[in-house]
């Protein structure tokens, strides 16, 4: 599933879905040097920033910095922190943003695509960009976009590129934030528009003079695609998009709501060959498959294209016919590594089905065919509620969008895992898939039993053998992902707001510190400024927290976010039903009956108004904070608290 968040848990509202560098001569980071030759990230000072969504074009999230070591990591503290809402109270959550850092500037983007440029050394705001009113009005006009994340920007050659939720690509001046150009996808492909249930949640990727984008909205029955634009003019590079599924009514895609195959996380690139690799999401409708018989290619697959032409090279499926929502969601990594003792270039990825895979990068030949890293126990979802069974993993995991990291010194890949089941209820027939506001057709997820507690883990796999080296358990699902360093450390955040560092060789936890917020749902960005190494995370929905050696800033107090967001104007009359329909209906149904989010018809029995308001403002479980604010949030909480 490609919407912002999609899960349930035992407490209804609490889990609602409101959507090696020097050693081994690290070839992956060496390829990053090739980017300068190819005009990639031309303004980036070599070896200081975090220039791409996944650091290098291969998305290894492995940085060459060694100032923070296993011996001094315990000296880390907070260097600076900034709640973005102190700058702009209208900014929605930043929760799934992955900051890019170039030339000492840290760039973050929020839901609804506000962009901030921040001095990466001290947290000072350099500029803020707010989308034009016409864009924001468009976003607010339709309910199915209300939960959508913006997962980052691309920065290259003095420009910042950001995708608008409503299927536009904007180009900003990196020094001033001034809008230089914006293009509408529907001007080139008329069907790609918000009104047809398409939207954008990914970070765009810059490679060799071009910008590459994927699609979201596959769960709504849209047709997945990848498009490429020339970075200077924003004109299309290819004659047409690469479509991941057939046009509706052709091939296997029969039925009014059949489609899917979103590409909702960034793609990876190999500068040696100009090939690009991306993960493709699930077919739609979820659970109900009467109108999409067969293997449903290229859904739940890794696909390789020639980046210059869009020509198909190969594809490999992780699930041939998916009825569980088992996207290939996480961005694949391209590795120059050793397999069975021999050097080989490979592509690796962990799927939502809970299995990890590796393929030959040139041919797509399978090397490791599904190494399990979470509990796997599933059967065909049933349409009779009294007979539904727990499916492991559920729609939120094994591995969702949260990225892996690769350490060339050990030749280990670290996988962020999610042990979270679902009770999946399939539609009975074609009539039923058109219900629930026609959003996520065919999909309904029931609340988990009270005795089921979702957890997470981190699994280290030796790429040479494909075997697990170790697995450590985490109290919360691993929704954020990992970033590693040349000093043998891997950093990650957790849903309770803790930031951690582990020893990659043995999985031993070496350092932990609170962030002052919760719901860390991104992997840390690690960078250098004036010879000092920093680790940046986003916590509590809107706060950027940066750690460094000797940092002395106090841990920020929680709930500051709630005070800012919940400052309700009592003189304003709010219709809570209208608020619900604009912000909640897409996941919880037009009658609170639940769809991908849980049933809220009796939520007042288990949660007080205060609990509900806190949940709306601050988030919790897999719900982000700040989707509804102020008087709207208070009115919505009051209304829901009476649902008994």
TrEMBL record:
> Among its keywords, does the record have Coiled coil?
no
Q: Which UniProt keywords apply?
A: Heme, Iron, Metal-binding, Oxidoreductase, PQQ, Signal
**Domain Cytochrome c per the UniProt entry, residue ranges:** 571-644
Record flagged with keyword Metal-binding: yes
The cofactors required by this protein are: pyrroloquinoline quinone
In terms of PROSITE patterns, this protein maps to:
BACTERIAL_PQQ_2, CYTC, PROKAR_LIPOPROTEIN
Alphabetical list of InterPro entries matching this protein: Cyt_c-like_dom, Cyt_c-like_dom_sf, PQQ_b-propeller_rpt, PQQ_rpt_dom, Quinoprotein_ADH-like_sf, Quinoprotein_DH_CS
- Enumerate the Pfam families for this protein: Cytochrome_CBB3, PQQ
Q: Which family does it belong to?
A: Belongs to the bacterial PQQ dehydrogenase family.
- This chain's protein is named PQQ-binding-like beta-propeller repeat protein
* Organism encoding this protein: Neobacillus pocheonensis
């Amino acid at each position: 599933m490609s919407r912002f968040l999609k899960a349930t848990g035992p407490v209804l509202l609490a889990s609602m879905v409101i959507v090696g560098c020097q050693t081994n001569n690290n070839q992956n980071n060496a390829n990053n040097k090739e980017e300068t030759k190819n005009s990639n990230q031309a303004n980036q000072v070599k070896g200081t920033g975090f220039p791409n969504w996944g650091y290098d074009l291969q998305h290894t999230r492995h940085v060459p910095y060694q100032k923070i070591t296993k011996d001094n990591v315990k000296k880390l503290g907070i260097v600076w922190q900034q709640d973005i809402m102190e700058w702009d109270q209208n900014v929605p959550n930043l929760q799934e943003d992955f900051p890019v850092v170039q030339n000492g500037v840290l760039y973050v983007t929020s839901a609804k695509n506000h962009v901030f440029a921040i001095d990466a050394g001290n947290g000072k705001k350099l500029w803020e960009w707010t989308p034009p009113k016409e864009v924001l009005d468009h976003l607010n006009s339709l309910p199915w976009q209300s939960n959508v994340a913006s997962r980052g920007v691309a920065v290259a050659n003095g420009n910042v590129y950001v995708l608008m939720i409503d299927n536009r690509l904007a180009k900003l001046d990196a020094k001033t934030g001034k809008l230089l150009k914006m293009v509408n996808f529907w001007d080139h492909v008329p069907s790609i528009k918000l009104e047809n249930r398409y939207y954008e949640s990914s970070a765009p990727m810059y490679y060799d003079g071009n910008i590459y984008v994927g699609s979201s909205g596959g769960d709504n029955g849209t047709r997945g695609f990848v498009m490429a634009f020339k970075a200077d003019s924003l004109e299309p590079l290819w004659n047409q998009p690469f479509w991941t599924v057939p046009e509706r009514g052709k091939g296997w895609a029969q039925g009014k709501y059949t489609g899917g195959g979103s590409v909702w996380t960034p793609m990876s690139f190999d500068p040696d060959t100009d090939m690009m690799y991306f993960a493709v999401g699930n077919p739609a409708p979820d659970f109900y498959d009467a109108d999409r018989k067969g293997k449903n290619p290229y859904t739940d697959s890794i696909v390789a294209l020639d980046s210059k032409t869009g020509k198909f090279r190969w594809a490999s499926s992780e699930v041939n016919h998916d009825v569980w929502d088992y996207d290939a969601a996480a961005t694949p990594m391209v590795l120059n590594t050793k397999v069975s003792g021999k050097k080989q270039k490979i592509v690796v990825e962990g799927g939502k089905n809970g299995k990890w895979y590796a393929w030959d990068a040139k041919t797509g030949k399978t090397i490791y065919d599904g190494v399990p890293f979470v509990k796997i126990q599933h059967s065909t979802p049933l349409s009779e509620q009294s007979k539904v069974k727990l499916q492991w993993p559920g729609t939120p995991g094994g591995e969702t969008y949260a990225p892996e990291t690769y350490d060339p010194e050990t030749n280990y890949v670290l996988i962020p895992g999610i042990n979270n089941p679902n009770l999946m209820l399939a539609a009975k027939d074609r009539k039923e898939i058109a219900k629930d506001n026609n959003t996520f057709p065919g999909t309904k997820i029931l609340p988990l039993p009270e005795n089921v507690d979702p957890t997470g883990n981190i699994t280290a796999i030796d790429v040479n053998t494909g075997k697990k080296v170790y697995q450590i358990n985490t109290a919360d699902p691993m929704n954020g992902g990992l970033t590693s360093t040349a000093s043998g450390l891997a950093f990650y955040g957790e849903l309770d707001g803790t930031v951690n560092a582990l020893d990659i060789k043995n999985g031993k936890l070496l350092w932990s510190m609170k962030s002052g917020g919760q719901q860390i749902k991104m992997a840390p960005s690690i960078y250098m400024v004036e010879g000092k190494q920093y680790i940046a995370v986003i916590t509590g929905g809107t706060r950027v927290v940066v750690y460094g050696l000797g940092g002395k800033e106090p841990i920020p107090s929680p709930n500051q976010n709630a005070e800012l967001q919940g400052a309700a104007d009592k003189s304003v009359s709010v219709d809570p039903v209208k608020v619900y329909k604009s912000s909640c209906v897409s996941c919880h149904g037009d009658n609170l009956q639940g769809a991908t989010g849980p049933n809220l018809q009796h939520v007042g029995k288990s949660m007080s108004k205060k609990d509900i308001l806190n949940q709306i403002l601050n988030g919790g479980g897999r719900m982000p904070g700040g989707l509804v604010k102020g008087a709207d949030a208070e009115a919505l909480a009051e209304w829901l608290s009476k649902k008994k």
